[in-house]
Amino acid sequence: MIVNLSTTKKILREFDIKPKKRLGQHFLIDGNVLRKIIDVAKISNDDNVLEIGGGIGTLTEVLLRKANKVICVEYDAKLVSVLKELFKELNNVVIIQADALKYDFNPLIKKHSINKMVSNLPYNIALTLIFNMLNKYPEIKRYIVLVQAEIGERLTIIIFVFLF
Q: Where in the numbering of this chain does the Ribosomal RNA adenine methylase transferase N-terminal domain appear (predicted)?
C-alpha cells in the first residue's frame, strides 16, 4: 500500500519525481484521510470511477480494489509513467495523459459508463475543475473530491452565496 510517508518518498526517489508547485502537486500520505474518502464515496464493484490527478497512485490503488474500473486522468507525463508501471498488471485501470481542464470527458464517460468521480485534486485547478465537471457531466452521479482547506472554504462561500 502506497499511503504512508516512507513509501511515498521511496516512489518519488525511485522515479526521480519532484513535486511541481506550479501544478499544485501534492501526495496523500494519511491513511485516515484515504479511508474517509473511500467511505464517503461508497465505491462498489458496480462503479466505474473517474480519478483526476492520479499522482503516484495512492488513491488509485485503493479505488482499484473496490471499483469495477478506474479511469485515471493525469496531466504530468512523468506521473503517467509511474501509474502505468505501478498498475501494469491490472486490467481494470485506464490511464490517460491529459489536461483535465481542456479534456472532453463525454466519450470517456460513455465508453466506460463512468458514474462517480473520486479525486485528490491539485489545488491550482480544483475550483475551476469542480464547476466544469458539475456543469458539463450530469451523467456522473457522485463527486467526491479532496481539496485544500482554503479551497473548501471558498467553495462553501460560493455555494452559500448561490443558495441565498
A: 33-164
